[in-house]
Amino acid sequence: MTDYRALDRLLLPDENTWGQGIRPYTAAELNEIAQNVNESKQLGYGARLHADTGGYTPGQPGGRRAAVPSGFDAADHPNRAGLVPGAADPDIITEFGEPVQQVDPRLRELFIARGWVQDQHGRPLHPRHEQLLSDDRIGMVTGLGFGWWYGEAVVADAVVTTGTGHVLVVDRDTDAGRIPSLPGGYTTPSDFGRTVAQWQTGDRPVTAEGIVTGALRRTAAETGLVVPRWATPELVRGIRPVSSVHTLHAWTMTVTVRVHLPGTELPALERATSARWVPDYATVLDRMWPDHRRALLAAVE
């Protein structure tokens, strides 16, 4: 068994790059998480599990499994609508009894290797679940919910800067209106050199190279900018954010990838996109998501 922090240290050896959830959440961060999960509601998400919920008992990495009671599953989220069998992990309904449905044994081996606590179905629990379940304002729903895969999905966001000080942003439509944001998003198995079929069997490597590949792929798709091969992207920040989409069994690690293009001529962007070069990043900070704002500052300051 490996401590789940071993991969964190491998990807981000400098502890100064560790954000919330890589290290324990601070009181201020828990306040922000509580606000996020209570302000935004997801379809199919109901009551949230807490540490003092009847029937819940904690587990140990590689040892005793946690007991997770039924009644807190997130079901039928639109993000999983239309998924064909084999395209994602099956969403197991939480139950007790003998026997209960189990995840693929090969996935269990992966979860043990990652140092994650497992429940009675063999599903992994968020690395910081003890903090999140113990906070009466937070708690977590169970099951896959929004997610496609059990465990940790990696989101890769790119901060692309130029020699003139410009920063690349894209505009996104949100419940709060159209806001500037960083290009990026969820990585896929192919970013790590794997097929979906391999991913399903537990062959799920997480590497710095794969994270960079995902960030550059998303940047090209959202802006038209193909980062040149001579560029040297680097991982400058990692967090485990918690918002209304995350569950006890499916969460994300978000990594900021810094890409600096030293030239003085601004690279062309695809006109059909909302991408643009901002000459002074301070002019957009106030309108960005808090996580993107912090990621941008971590990359440029």
Q: How does this model look, in words?
A:
The chain is α+β, with helices and mostly antiparallel strands and 301 residues long. Helices cover 24% and strands 16% of the residues. The chain has eight helices and seven strands; from the N terminus they run ααααββββααβββαα. The strands form two sheets. A four-stranded mixed sheet has the order 4-1-6-5. A hairpin with a 2-residue loop joins strand 2 (167-174) and strand 3. The longest helix is centred in the last third of the chain and has 16 residues, at 208-223. The mean pLDDT is 95.
- Order of neighbouring strands in the sheet with most strands: 4-1-6-5
Separation of the first and last Cα atoms: 37 Å
Helix count, DSSP H or I runs of 4 or more residues:
8
Number of strand segments: 7
Order of helices and strands: HHHHEEEEHHEEEHH
TL;DR of this structure?
This protein is an alpha+beta fold. It has helices spanning 5-11, 27-39, 105-113, 129-134, 196-200, 208-223, 282-285, 290-300, and strands spanning 151-162, 167-174, 177-181, 184-186, 234-239, 250-261, 276-278. The chain contains 8 helices and 7 strands, in the order H-H-H-H-E-E-E-E-H-H-E-E-E-H-H.
